[in-house]
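Narrative of accomplishments. A recurring question from our advisory board has been how the design workflow behaves on a single, concrete structure rather than in aggregate. To address it, we present the structure tokens for one chain from the evaluation set, followed by the sequence designed for it. No filtering or post-editing was applied between the two.
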């Protein structure tokens, strides 16, 4: 009988942070890599070592040891030290699709520049695998995957399979059923070595009939085992039934692929089963405060900053690629599975929050600088001129709220054609002396406008027909007063052309959809209950109480002006102060919740919920009832839409008997929206906050979105939804995770007629999550307030549109417009957001299709099928 070949791949799984901080991890990483270099250089029979497929690790090391660059790069080029394709081991389910792509882009690029990037989708510890990852891998030249979490043996008894993404692309994949750490410990005692190997190999051989088997040697922050070649020789001497060899993980996966001849099962889509390896499905709502920061900065980067920088490149401005890369890298550190999960110590989560602050500050200031550099080159005929940017590649009508420095006089805001724009002053503050004392006049002899008064003003404007991927100018006309007045009364009804919304006697909303004439009750029901879980899993207490906002309304008022109508609702919920009170059925603590419900001139109902959270270990969700008895839900995923069952019935029937590591629950992630629909109509919740939902109700007719959940420990044992050991460190208290204080959440609700595709849900979310920058071009603001700049020649057009794309339901949807990283052109990335319907790709001049790496050519396509993504490189004229 032929010996089986056991591929020992040796590695460390290097968490950047967890119960320890990044600082501690970096200090030990420095020593670790220095030791790895020594071992590989001193032992030529040590063929390869995997540095966790994270290029950020070599970047981090070389920052402190630049003298080792040549040594490190030499080993990487020889593929003895293996790194890439990731920058960090990113989450795949709640991170923005562009974040996943850029993580691979920078990870591959850094590794390739060092000598070689591992072309393997190596994901040792992420909490589930995204359904469109095979397509993303393929478009980075990666045709194989190796991972741990997400598949139960009910689904796949063997370990190898073809993983088919939701667009149809496939990669050959292998699951490590017992994880990357299975062979981390090795018995070196000669007398017991054979028995040790037999014991360790028995489960592996029971799951695989192949001649090639995998034995992963390593664990978290594992030291390199210097004598591993000698140990492998000892394995071969004592075990005549098997041949052991040190291999790279890719060598093993390719060997299994060749052995199988392609005759393997096909699994499709996302992989999130938690039978043998916990996937922590409710990590999507852990540390809601950090999730909100993540979503805010991702949207700012992708939807606004990068398109504005592309507009600047079109005018001849340099692309600050290194600054943009540094911002993304801050986000990648936070996108790592533990970091974005929030399943860390409080100390670590404070580091994560600070990185978000750094990324947001850099992005905000780079955006301000970019819009300023453009604005000061546009001819100016008015002392109060404003440049308004549209980062979307289609003309937009949009209400925009921004800050301006105004003289406190009546005015009318006019567009470039002189048309009056409706606007409302939200608030203003007299800062005359502060602002005017900041002004710097580089040329004192040149006349300039010096206002008598300066008010910091926040105003909202109803913008019309903003040029696609471009800008236009507004100015103040002091000859008339065009400011809308605001009225406040005790009304409880608001309406526009799409809806009539009433506050009913029980404090809940009734929404009449005017197009269909249907009236939907029990809308915006707030539901509070306990959370006996930890930083990894929501888990209800064994003795729980559910408190709702029904009959909890204490005050209601209505506000209206020319731009919108708003209901202001105040609720007072009596809730348990702690899990102990909850178990006793006591609800003694008042929880104040303020909600605003706003109608503008479109079909999106905008909600804001502000909570004063003074109680411990609980969860707050918002429910919207529909008239659809659902079997499945739809939500957006990486470059497309995914359909999921509303209940995992088969798994629920057996999970306790089969001792699953987690209860199989249908609490799911989304990128930006969740939808229930039939052939005639549907309901969509667009989130600007936590990306977690569940379909609930007796008939599964209600969309429930988590606003936040809180808990007191990093890890806990024997949860109702997760039996057995704690996932994290049970001795680490996390008082910060109780989120005490003020919390704020925003989301939108739509009722649509027609099919799912006609609703264009992803397109609505894209506009909702896009910031439209406004830059005020006034001489008196040039100074210390903004930093002082020289005068520029004003030779730019007053209005500009760099690119216009079609945006109907049969057209591809934009993911990003950005500057190309390695050439002088632009990158336009599009995808199909529809269900079971192809979309058309635009016919753009000077455009060629490329892969996600921005350089490898792809065949020309006129259409994208469901979940397809296509990148176009556009050469500058």
């Amino acid at each position: 009988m032929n010996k089986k070949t056991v591929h020992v791949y040796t590695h460390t799984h290097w968490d950047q942070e967890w119960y320890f901080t990044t600082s501690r991890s970096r200090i030990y990483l420095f020593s670790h890599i220095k030791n790895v270099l020594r071992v590989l250089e001193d032992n030529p029979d040590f063929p390869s070592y995997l540095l966790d497929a994270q290029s950020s690790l070599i970047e981090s090391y070389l920052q402190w040891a630049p003298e080792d660059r040549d040594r490190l790069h030499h080993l990487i080029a020889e593929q003895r030290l293996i790194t890439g394709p990731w920058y960090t081991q990113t989450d795949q389910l709640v991170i923005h699709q562009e974040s996943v792509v850029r993580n691979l882009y920078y990870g591959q690029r850094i590794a390739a520049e060092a000598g070689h990037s591992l072309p393997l989708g190596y994901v040792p510890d992420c909490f589930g695998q995204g359904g469109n990852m095979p397509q993303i891998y393929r478009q980075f030249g990666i045709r194989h995957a190796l991972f741990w979490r997400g598949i139960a043996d009910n689904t796949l008894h063997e370990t190898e399979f073809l993983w088919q993404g939701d667009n149809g692309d496939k990669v050959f994949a292998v699951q490590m059923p017992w994880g990357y750490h299975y062979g981390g410990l090795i018995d070196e005692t000669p007398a017991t070595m054979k028995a040790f190997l037999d014991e360790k190999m028995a489960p592996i051989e029971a799951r695989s009939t192949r001649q090639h088997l995998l034995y992963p040697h390593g664990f978290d922050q594992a030291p390199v085992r210097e004598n591993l070649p000698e140990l492998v020789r000892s394995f071969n001497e004592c075990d005549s039934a098997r041949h052991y060899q040190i291999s790279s993980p890719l060598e093993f996966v390719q060997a299994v692929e060749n052995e199988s001849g392609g005759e393997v099962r096909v699994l499709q889509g996302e992989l999130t089963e938690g039978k043998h390896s916990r996937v922590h499905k409710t990590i999507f709502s852990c540390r809601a405060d950090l999730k909100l920061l993540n979503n805010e900065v991702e949207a700012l980067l992708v939807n606004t900053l990068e398109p504005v920088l592309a507009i600047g490149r079109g005018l001849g401005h340099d692309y600050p690629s290194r600054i943009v890369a540094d911002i993304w890298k801050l986000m990648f550190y936070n996108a790592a599975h533990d970091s974005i999960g929030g399943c860390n110590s409080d100390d670590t989560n404070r580091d994560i929050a600070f990185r978000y602050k750094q990324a947001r500050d850099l992005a905000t200031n780079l955006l301000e600088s970019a819009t300023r550099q453009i604005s000061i080159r546009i001819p100016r005929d008015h002392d109060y001129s404003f440049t308004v940017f549209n980062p979307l590649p289609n003309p937009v009508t949009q209400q925009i709220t921004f800050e301006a420095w105004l003289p406190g006089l009546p005015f009318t805001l006019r567009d470039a054609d002189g048309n009056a724009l409706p606007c409302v002053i939200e608030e203003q503050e007299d800062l005359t002396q502060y602002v005017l004392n900041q002004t710097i006049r580089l040329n004192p002899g040149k006349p300039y406008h010096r206002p008598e008064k300066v008010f910091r003003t926040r105003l909202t404007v109803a913008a019309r027909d903003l040029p696609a991927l471009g800008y236009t100018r507004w100015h103040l006309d002091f000859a008339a007063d065009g400011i809308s007045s605001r009225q406040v009364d005790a009304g409880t009804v608001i309406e526009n052309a799409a809806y009539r919304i009433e506050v009913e006697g029980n404090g809940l909303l009734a929404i009449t959809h005017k197009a269909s004439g249907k009236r939907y009750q029990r809308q915006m029901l707030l539901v509070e209950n306990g959370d006996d879980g930890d930083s990894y899993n929501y888990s209800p207490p064994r003795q729980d109480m559910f408190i709702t906002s029904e009959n909890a309304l204490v005050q209601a008022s209505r506000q209206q002006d020319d731009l919108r109508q708003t209901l202001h609702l105040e609720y007072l919920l009596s809730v348990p102060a702690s899990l102990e009170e909850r178990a006793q059925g006591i609800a003694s603590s008042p929880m104040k919740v303020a909600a605003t419900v706003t109608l503008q001139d479109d079909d999106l109902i905008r909600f804001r919920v502000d909570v004063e959270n003074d109680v411990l270990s609980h969860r707050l969700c918002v429910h919207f009832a529909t008239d659809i008895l659902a079997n499945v839900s739809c939500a957006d995923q990486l470059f497309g839409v995914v359909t999921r069952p509303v209940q995992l019935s088969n798994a629920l029937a057996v999970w306790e008997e089969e001792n699953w590591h987690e209860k199989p629950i249908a609490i799911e992630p989304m990128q930006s929206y969740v939808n229930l629909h039939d052939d005639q109509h549907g309901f969509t919740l667009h989130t600007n906050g936590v990306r977690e939902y569940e379909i609930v109700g007796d008939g599964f007719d209600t969309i429930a979105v988590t606003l936040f959940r809180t808990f007191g420990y990093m890890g806990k044992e024997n949860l109702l939804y997760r039996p057995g050991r704690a996932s994290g460190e049970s001795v680490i208290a996390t008082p910060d995770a109780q989120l005490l204080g003020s919390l704020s959440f925003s989301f939108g609700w739509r009722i649509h007629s027609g099919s799912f595709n006609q609703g264009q849900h992803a397109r609505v979310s894209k506009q909702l999550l896009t910031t439209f920058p406004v830059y005020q071009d006034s001489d008196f603001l040039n100074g210390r307030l903004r930093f002082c700049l020289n005068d520029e020649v004003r030779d730019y057009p007053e209005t500009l549109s760099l690119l216009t794309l079609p945006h109907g339901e049969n057209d591809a949807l934009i993911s990003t417009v950005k500057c190309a990283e390695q050439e002088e052109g632009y990158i336009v990335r599009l995808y199909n957001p529809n269900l079971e319907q192809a979309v058309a790709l635009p016919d753009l001049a000077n455009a060629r299709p490329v892969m996600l790496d921005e350089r490898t050519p792809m065949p020309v396509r006129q259409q994208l099928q469901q979940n397809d993504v296509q990148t176009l490189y556009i050469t500058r004229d």
